[in-house]
Write a structure and sequence with these properties.
The chain is α+β, with helices and mostly antiparallel strands. The chain has a domain of about 60 residues: Alpha-Beta Plaits (2-Layer Sandwich), CATH 3.30.70.100. The protein contains three helices and four strands, in the order βαββαβα. A four-stranded antiparallel sheet has the order 2-3-1-4, with helices on one face. A hairpin with a 4-residue loop joins strand 2 and strand 3. The N and C termini lie close together (about 10 Å). One of its GO terms (molecular function) is monooxygenase activity. Keywords: Monooxygenase, Oxidoreductase. InterPro entries: Dimeric_a/b-barrel, YdhR.
Length: about 100
C-alpha cells in the first residue's frame, strides 16, 4: 500500500533559490531511494523549519527511508527530526483531487 511520509525539522537556512542551489545534488540522489515515488520539499523561513512530504510504495520503504534520513540529518547537525508515516485514504483523497492515482 502506498504510504505518505512527513518529515519536519528546525532549519536555519539557506532558503529559496539558495537552498535549491545548495541541495540539488542531494535532491537527485533521493530519486534512487528504494520505494520512493515523489517528494515535495517544504520550507518556512519565518519559523526556521524545513522538511518534506514523500510518497513511498510501502510502509516498509517509508520507515527505512525515515531511519536513514534521520541519521543523515543528524550528521548534518540537525538533531530534532520529526517523522510521521501515514496510510492514505484513497476514497476521500480521490474526492479532493489527490495528486496521484493510488490504484495503479
Amino acid at each position: 500500500m502506498k504510504t505518505l511520509l512527513q518529515v519536519d525539522f528546525d532549519y536555519q537556512g539557506p532558503f529559496g533559490e539558495v537552498m535549491s542551489d545548495a541541495l540539488k545534488e542531494l535532491a537527485a540522489t533521493i530519486n534512487n531511494e528504494p520505494g520512493m515515488i515523489w517528494k515535495l520539499w517544504t520550507e518556512n523561513e519565518k519559523t526556521q523549519q524545513a522538511g518534506g512530504v514523500y510518497l513511498f510504495e510501502s510502509e516498509e520503504t517509508a520507515q527505512a527511508y525515515l531511519e536513514m534520513h534521520t541519521a543523515r540529518l543528524t550528521t548534518m547537525g540537525i538533531p530534532n527530526v520529526q517523522g510521521q508515516v501515514f496510510n492514505i485514504n484513497e476514497s476521500l483523497s480521490a474526492i479532493n483531487q489527490g495528486p496521484f492515482n493510488l490504484s495503479s
